[in-house]
Amino acid sequence: MSDLVLVLVTGLGLGALYFLAASGLSLVYGLMGVLNFAHGSFMTAGAYAAWLTMDALPGSMAVGLRLLVAAVVAVLVGAAVGVLAEAVLIRPLYRHHIQQVLVTVGLSLASVAAVQGIWGSDPHPVAKPALLAGTVEVLGARLPVDRFLYLAVALALYGGLLALLERTRLGLVIRAGVENRTMVQALGIDVRRTFTVVFGLGGAVAALAGVLYSQYAGTVSPLQGGSLLIYAFIVVVIGGMGSLTGTAVAAMAVGLVQQLANYYAASGIGDLSVVLLLALVLLLRPSSLKGAAA
């Protein structure tokens, strides 16, 4: 029983990280129709911004406080990178989807090369607060505390994004701009600025995912964002392209399937199980690739 509890909680914690990684991707695609292959670069930017910030802060400061400050800096950096990418690369190509893919793939490759050139290819250790490194006993199982943090942040993000899209004027403008951009512009609303805000929000969320994933892995590395992006795409496709709720459910399912397969079958089978789950969903519900409502 205790083993099952441990596997389930760690699976949900991993699913929470996948949701954090995929939510920005789903948001940008669902609202703007942009399939952003550079999303992993935003996660890498956040992870490295946090790592550099934590190293720059005084060693006398508590690790938890340094992590909090670093997370704020990382979110700001991610938002800035997202806004810059949208303004310079994406905005001229909104009606050219193939070019969007090529540009974002190029940005992803270039960013990895840039990070490797500046900080090297080797992973760098990241300081972890003692509280997050500890465990708590639940139903006889010793559960990592950090998994509960990932779940809490994912739940807060999910609720915040839904509230933003459904209960604020900005959300109304975003959804209206997607449905009928010409009409919204005729009302004197700058849709381009609104779409830039969406991309900046996607970059901020991605950066936060990068920070928390570096805490999960214990290191930062240039290829980390790309590795997480693969699971983010799987989650988005399984959940329905552009569906925030579907993304949340799919992220939890993927995390659980991966952990259960790794524990009860063999190490490494989890990745194969996730791919098989993706194939099954596409066979039974091919409309996942066509998009869904948030």
Q: Count the domains.
A: 1
Biggest β-sheet description: 2 strands, antiparallel
Record field, number of beta strands:
4
The string of secondary-structure elements, in order, is: HHHHEHEEHHHHEHHH
Low-confidence stretches: none
Total helices: the number is: 12
Integer-rounded radius of gyration: 19 Å
Strand order in the largest sheet: 1-4
Structural class: mainly alpha
Tell me the β content: under 5%
**Alpha-carbon distance between the two ends:** 36 Å
Could you report the average pLDDT, rounded to the nearest whole number?
A: 85
Helix content class: over 70%
Shape: globular
Family: Belongs to the binding-protein-dependent transport system permease family. LivHM subfamily.
Keywords: Amino-acid transport, Cell membrane, Membrane, Transmembrane, Transmembrane helix, Transport
Pfam family, one: BPD_transp_2
Main location: membrane
